[in-house]
TrEMBL record:
Source species, domain of life: Eukaryota
Classification via InterPro entries: NA-bd_OB-fold (IPR012340), RFA1B/D_OB_1st (IPR003871)
Name the record gives this protein: Replication protein-related
Organism field: Arabidopsis thaliana
Gene3D superfamilies recorded: Nucleic acid-binding proteins (2.40.50.140)
Positions of the Replication protein A 70 kDa DNA-binding subunit B/D first OB fold domain: 3-104
């Protein structure tokens, strides 16, 4: 079976076949009418692309196969030029599922998590395109704020849940800092998991390392920061599920 690379894709056909890893997926399944499932996909050639699944019926049911970290084979889909201003990857095209689209699970093709780490100098002096796409960062958690709220006007049946945030800094192993804002769901996850870390019987004031995935550069109060994005963003404290990351080696390499 012939498989295309992401760089082969053009918007003049739907007869495509690709093998990709799901890095992030949200609105899956959709919670309400009109919501669209969105994914960030990555191939084994270090290319990343956005994909959407409009609500509707499909020729081949594939929902059970769509999970973060899973390698999948996708065939017969539409390739479109992105129209939305909100994007997650820099790839020039966007994948859109259609009625004929098929998805099949694959064994792990490459044992990688495809991090796209940003560093303090990149956050301080970002390129123009860096503002448009999400990125990853890593560091020791310091300077945690109290939970606060952005100014937010609720529409009918809405709450101000997504306006809640906590800020903190990530200190890298060179002693440089990045300011981060965990908003809404990420705020809740950060506070809950950080509390678990420091209340553990094994905790003895050792550094706590955070990895933030799929966060976006934003300007808050005149400062460039990393801010969590609704849906795609993730945060991990002292993670052990990434083979590429050795937390203890990272801590030992720090310059104090």
């Amino acid at each position: 079976m012939s498989v295309h690379k992401l760089t082969d894709l053009r918007d003049n056909s739907t007869n495509w076949k690709i093998n990709v890893k799901i890095l992030s997926i949200w609105n899956h399944p959709p919670n309400s009418h009109g919501e669209i499932t969105t994914m960030i996909l990555h191939d084994d050639k270090n290319n990343r692309v956005d994909a959407t699944i409009p609500q509707g019926n499909y020729h081949n049911p594939f929902c059970p196969f769509l999970k973060p970290g899973t390698w999948i084979h996708i065939s017969d889909f539409r390739v479109v030029v992105p129209q939305s201003r909100v994007r997650y990857s820099s790839f020039r095209f966007h994948i859109k599922f259609i009625w004929e689209t098929s998805v099949h699970p694959l064994p792990e093709l490459v044992k990688r998590d495809f991090f796209d780490f940003i560093f303090p100098i990149d956050l301080k002096y970002p390129c123009l395109e860096d503002w448009d796409y999400v990125t990853d960062a890593m560091g020791v958690v310091t300077n945690i704020s109290a939970i606060k709220k952005f100014l937010f006007v609720c529409r009918q049946v809405e709450t101000d849940y997504e306006s809640r945030y906590v800020s903190f800094e990530l200190l890298d192993n060179m002693g440089k800092k990045m300011k981060c804002y965990a908003v809404g769901r990420c705020c809740e996850l950060f506070v809950t998991n950080f509390s678990k870390c420091i209340s553990s019987a094994a905790y003895n004031y050792q550094p706590i390392v955070a990895i933030v995935r799929f966060w976006r550069i934003a300007e808050i109060e005149g400062e460039n920061v990393l801010k969590s994005e609704f849906g795609c963003s993730r945060i991990y404290l002292n993670p052990t599920n990434f083979p590429e990351i050795d937390i203890q080696s990272y801590i030992r390499s720090r310059r104090l």
